[in-house]
Amino acid sequence: MFYILQTSCISPQATYPPPGAGAGIGAAGIGAPRAPVDNMLKAVEPSYEGIPGSVLRRMSKSVKMGVGAALPLLSSVPQGILIGTGNGGMEDSVKFLKQIIDYDEGLLTPGTFVQSTANAIASQIGLLHHNNGYNATYVHRGLAFESALIDAAMLVTEHPGHSYLVGGVDEISNHHYRFEYTEGWYKKEDLSGKDLYTTDSPGSIAGEGSAMFLVSGAGANALAEVKGILTLRSEDDNTVKAAIQAFLERYLPAGTLPDLLLSGENGDNRGFSGYERCEDMMAPDTTIARFKHLCGEYPTASAYALWLACNLPPVLPGHLVKRLSKEKPYRTILIYNQYEFSQHSLILLERSL
Amino acid sequence: MGVISAVGNSLAENRSALRAGQGGITLSRHLPTRYAGILPFGEVPIVTDDLKDKLSVTDPGITRTTLLALHAFREAIADARLTESVLSDPATALVGATTVGGMCLTDELYRDMSGPCEGSAFLSSYDCASVHMYLQDRYKMQGLATTINTACSSSANAIQFGTRLVRNGRARRAIVGGTDSLAKFTINGFNALQILSTGHCRPFDRDRSGLNLGEGAAFLVLEGEEALAEAAGGEAGKKIYAELTGYCNTNDAFHPSALSAEGDGPYLAMKGALLSAGLNATQIDFINTHGTATENNDEAESRAIVRLFREPPPFISTKSYTGHTLGASGAIEAVYSTLSLEYQEIYASLNFEQPIPGIGLQPVQAYGVCPLRHVMSNSFGFGGNCTSLIISKVN
């Protein structure tokens, strides 16, 4: 479908600056993972040196993380910018809403209102780089990033020579965290020092981050090729299973299965069986790895997973591995993620090794 | 197609108001805002509870934004004669757009934020995706679904994305559109930007003084030739209104909430749409402009139109009827443009008196019948997001 040429990621781990631009991710990025604090994994933000101070001060955290992760990929000019965000803008929306109520709809300053629109990330990247190209923002909650990927897949088919910046960005908004906590999406007990995956309780830990990809239809020097993407909304086990099966049959050579399954398992015991269902469909020699202990749970966590898949070291750190089946190179990687049980996505990747 | 706006609850009602030159901008009767009796709005004259009853919605946590979407969606699928099985076909995509989403519940959100309570039924309704996830569930839709938010060009991009899904073989048909409801949130936001007019908005007039906010929703059913050929074999009387022939999405890359003086983004979007349709500027018979009636938009859009067309075709702004319906406007105006094509008619742009000095463009000011083959519909938004669509008569 399309090739990933470069990646960049701001996450709760030391994943920034990107590989080659300083500290490598192998050791610093995922070698010794940072643990959650108060059941939240907050992003390690850089100093954002590439963003003018006057602009930076007005940016929300998700806009900062979005622009910050995009900058290293903008040495050439992509023909478009595609961003997925589940709750980008929510924090500024809430700030503006508080102003409305606190000042009883008096005269307000418009800054937070303008920043509160979800398209602020993509448009700020376009603005800072004077990019007049295609510019779109997808907000379909747990499938927002995948929607941007699907758009990228269509764009490179329509314009094979063009390159596009694609990303997924979300921040932990305190209010939104409270809503989701109330709805039971985060753990009630403190997870400090515990293994996310062995807690037998509902809920996960909150996370945030920004992962960016420069993609193109031309594969020279590519890190990987995205071979297939599927999005699905369903709570029916059989429907999901059939969709995964059909996806694997369509995009993998007959009789083969991925070398590695990167599973979105998030410690919520109610969602465990869903991930297990996908694991059961893998071959005995498919290695199974997990990533949400590194980035936490958020609507565009699959963007972090895609970044990780593109940048995995040859030998997987033990904390990633759920089932180690073979030590040979992980060439084909399947990312299976679900958000709030009903939004499912599959991304199939073939790395250039 | 299906549409609901301040000028009507259906395609027929909207067309009838447009033909008669009857705008829907009034002082608000229902809005819970201190500006209700002060500023005019393009309000859909049905209170939320009545909308719920009318649509037999009993689920908790359903917002006005979603109800407006459902209203237009229902009309669109009935108009296109889509059966339940076609709706749940994995080859049927849903591409929606909204900017307000559940933020129309400004006061409820504030209570949920500040109270020690257990939370209301709306906790998962505040985002934009909730609107289209509800439609997905209600109609058991199994196909690709997504939500776009590019501010005021959102639903034009939903139409573009849906068209491309069909062209790329990722869907056989796509139900595309947008919705937004009037909200204390957006009213105060636009008021803070000082671009709300205290009178009826006057698109392209020298003395224009800002926009009127509106609300509404529209959906269009896009089907590829393959799906149409199949339907022609089975279902009689499937109506084909028009063909989406051109589209282009650009970014003005000038300012977070204003267009560049020469309208670079709008110019590139219109030019790109012509290129994608394989048309010359002279072949566009009519433009439904973005025409918000702000000082900035109308001047920038006018300059871009003059730069591209030299002798611009007839144009109007239907925001003088509906107000600016934000994320819904691209879809509502695509429906209006399609009605113009279908009936070979141009509606009058309202409240225009004097052209903008130095530009001199005049919108069409009286209803008229004329031959139309290709029409352009413009939508521009905050963040510089510009999209132009070209809709053409099918031979």
Mean pLDDT of chain A: 92
Helix share, percent of chain B: 25-40%
The level of helicity of chain A is 25-40%
What's the count of strands of chain B? 14
CATH class of the largest domain in chain A: Alpha Beta
The CATH first-level class of the largest domain in chain B comes to: Alpha Beta
Q: How many structural domains does the protein architecture of chain A include?
A: 2
Largest contact between chains: A-B, 63 and 64 residues
What fraction of the residues of chain B are assigned to beta strands by DSSP? 15-25%
End-to-end span of chain B in angstroms?
Answer: 19 Å
Classify the oligomer: heterodimer
Rg of chain B, Å, rounded: 20 Å
Shape field of chain A: globular
Helix/strand structural class of chain A: alpha/beta
Number of helices of chain A: 12
Query: Which word captures the global form of chain B?
Result: globular
CATH-defined topology of the largest domain in chain A: Peroxisomal Thiolase, Chain A, domain 1
How would you characterize the overall build of this protein?
The complex is a heterodimer of chains A (353) and B (395). Chain A has 353 residues and is α/β, with parallel strands linked by helices. Chain A has 12 helices and 11 strands. Chain A has an 11-stranded mixed beta sheet, sandwiched between helices. In chain A, a hairpin with a 3-residue loop joins strand 10 and strand 11. The relative contact order of chain A is 0.18. By secondary structure, chain B is an alpha/beta fold. Chain B folds into 2 domains: 2-234, Peroxisomal Thiolase, Chain A, domain 1; 243-392, 3-Layer(aba) Sandwich (Peroxisomal Thiolase, Chain A, domain 1), CATH 3.40.47. In chain B, 35% of the residues lie in helices and 17% in strands. Chain B is built from 13 helices and 14 strands. In chain B, the strands form 4 sheets. Chain B has a 5-stranded mixed beta sheet, with helices on both faces. A 5-stranded mixed beta sheet of chain B has the order 8-14-13-9-10, with helices on both faces. A two-stranded antiparallel sheet of chain B has the order 2-3. In chain B, strand 9 (286-288), helix 11 and strand 10 form a beta-alpha-beta unit. In chain B, helix 3 (64-79) packs across helix 6, helix 7 crosses helix 13 and helix 10 (264-277) crosses helix 11. Chain B is globular, with a radius of gyration of 20 Å. The chains are: A alpha/beta (353), B alpha/beta (395). Chains A and B meet through helix 4, helix 5, helix 6, strand 3 and helix 7 of A and helix 5, helix 6, strand 5, helix 7 and helix 8 of B.
